[in-house]
Amino acid sequence: MLIKKKPVGEEKSALSGALLLAGLFMGAIVMVSFYPAIVFAGGHEDTGDLDHKVDLENQSGINLLIAKLYNDHRLLFALAVTATMAVVGIVIGQVTGILLRFLGLK
Amino acid sequence: MDFLNVYLPISGIEFSVIILLIIGFCVGTLGGFFGVGGAWIVTPALNIFGFNMPFAIGTDLAHIFGKSIIATKKHSKMGNVDWRLGLFSIAGSIVGIELGKRTVLYLEKIGDVGSVIRWVYMVFLFGLGIYMAYEYYSVTKKMKSEAPDNLKAEAPTREEASPLSNKLRSLKIPPMVSLPVSGVPGISFWILFGLFALTGFLSGFMGVGGGFILLPALIYLIGCPTTVAVGTSLLSVCFMSGYGCFTYSLSGRTELVAAVIMLFGAAIGAQVGAMATKLVRGYGIRLLFAIMIIFAGISVALKQAHSAFGYEIFGTLAAYCVMGAAGGMTALIFIKLIIGYRSKGAA
How far B147 CA lies from chain A's nearest CA (Å)? Predict the structure, then answer.
């Protein structure tokens, strides 16, 4: 049985390409982490008062949970919002995909 | 109709669920179809209906992040995402955005930056929109004259790499990179990096996510097929909006409940938009995109008139212009999708 083998030069160039991409990506992550103003910096919009607190009196259930997180742990709030959007995005994407397939819209 | 309203705990306002779902659906459809985030549509829409501007931007970015994950995943399944090119675009864009931001800060020190940005915006949007529409017209004319009589009614189907992208590919400055998914056998790394830095500069300068700049750059400068350009542009939008969502949430300007509701509408829209790219030909997508950005240009011109003359009516018209265009285009994509499926079913 013949086994097709990639030429050595091609493997080397693929490896160097992968390393280059990995390096670029890591560089981008590091840049963004240390200098967060980079992305959307040109938004020209004031982000408002950072010490804004939400009134908890009329809140209950999930709203109360969100408001408490917002008031007391802003970093956790930011992480929770980002993670929620990603997870909800993936779940809704799957469900709507199944629904559309069910409707015959493959 | 109070039961259709939802209380938003952070901004402390009541908001209509129906409006959130409709905005989400429209921008989801446009995002899936054109490969754009759509911040230039959602932000004015939320603002008109009662969100203050920082909350409108933060909530918009959060929902765009979720939506672009859905659309990227869908396009990836259809083989429309060039991951290698996407990573290059992210890295190059970051450098460009920083340069764009610095230019804005410099201009802020010496004068009225808002007006300068709006003029650049208008030149860019009108220039690109007219060029893309003209390209569609000339290609259609050429193909119709070459095609046999029975095919003359057809729109152009075959996409050719633009002369500019061929020229850029011919510059052999090492290291060379191949992009098989985009059908590019070899292009200089420096050309790619320079191009994405330039598109990033425009994003940073104009204060936008960058999808609507990246899409034409991928088509006309790299020579990507339109559907691959849409999918790859979405990958970049996904990264940028994810970061934007995090930073705006950190500064407390994201309304999670509203973003999740919009995401429900956007999820269906993103699927519809992505599926429609299979049924509308590449040049057709370019023409619709051209029409959409010309409307965006008119909206910016109205904003400039508002700033120059001070009449509130211009500001209101600007927001309704972009929203009307978004609604109309969504309806058109939906109709094209239904017609496409019916004709496929009949065949």
Answer: 32
In tens, the pLDDT along B270-300 reads 888 888 887 776 677 778 888 888 888 888 7
Q: How many residues belong to chain B?
A: 347
Length of chain A: 106
Q: Hey, are the CB atoms on B248 and A86 less than 8 Å from each other?
A: no
Per-residue pLDDT of chain A (106 residues; tens, 9 = 90+): 444 444 544 444 444 544 544 454 455 444 444 444 433 333 344 444 556 777 777 778 888 888 888 888 889 999 999 999 999 988 988 887 788 778 776 5
| ipTM rounded to 2 decimals | 0.72
Locus of tokens 């020579």: B223
Q: Please indicate if any CB of chain B lies within 8 Å of the CB of A79.
A: yes
Task: Please choose, from the candidates B253, B263, B251, B247, the residue with its C-alpha nearest in 3D space to the C-alpha of residue B11.
Answer: B253
Closest residue by Cα to residue B8 from B70, B78, B62, B69? B62
Mutate to test the interface with A, among B202, B239, B250 (most CBs of A within 10 A): B250
Looking at chain B, the number of H-run helices and the number of E-run strands are 12, 4
Greatest alpha-carbon span in chain A: 76
Q: Does B15 touch chain A (CB under 8 A)?
A: no
Helices (H), ranges, B251-281: 256-279
